[in-house]
Structure to design on (107 residues):
């Protein structure tokens, strides 16, 4: 069987999301066209929130994407990468976002 070899890319993060404790969007930045319309994006965000807001883990594989997330009081920080993405890279981006939220007074 042939091994899957991916070309190196700087585009490792597909999206960064901050949702409130009801799963509503506070901030969202998508870096590709995986979910081209706002309707598709919001449906994806609701799906992620529903699958992750009650769990204690920090990594999930949903809809073929690697999702790294953290919660802080009433905010949920999500970093979305491809299914081939290194979770540690996404986790570092998630931690940076969480600290940024604290600096802005959001967490």
């Amino acid at each position: 069987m042939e091994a899957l070899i991916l070309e190196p890319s700087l585009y490792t993060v597909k999206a960064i999301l901050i949702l409130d404790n009801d799963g509503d969007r506070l901030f969202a930045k998508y870096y590709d066209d995986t979910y081209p319309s706002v309707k598709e994006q919001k449906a994806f965000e609701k799906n992620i929130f529903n699958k992750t807001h009650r769990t204690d883990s920090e990594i999930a594989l949903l809809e073929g994407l690697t999702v790294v997330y953290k919660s802080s009081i009433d905010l949920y920080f999500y970093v979305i990468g491809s299914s081939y993405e290194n979770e540690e890279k996404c986790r570092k981006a998630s931690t940076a976002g969480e600290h940024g939220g604290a600096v802005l007074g959001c967490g």
Q: What stands out?
A: Confidence is low (pLDDT under 50) at residues 99-107. Helices lie at 38-52, 87-103. The chain has one domain: 12-86. The domain at 12-86 is CATH 3.30.450.60 (Beta-Lactamase).
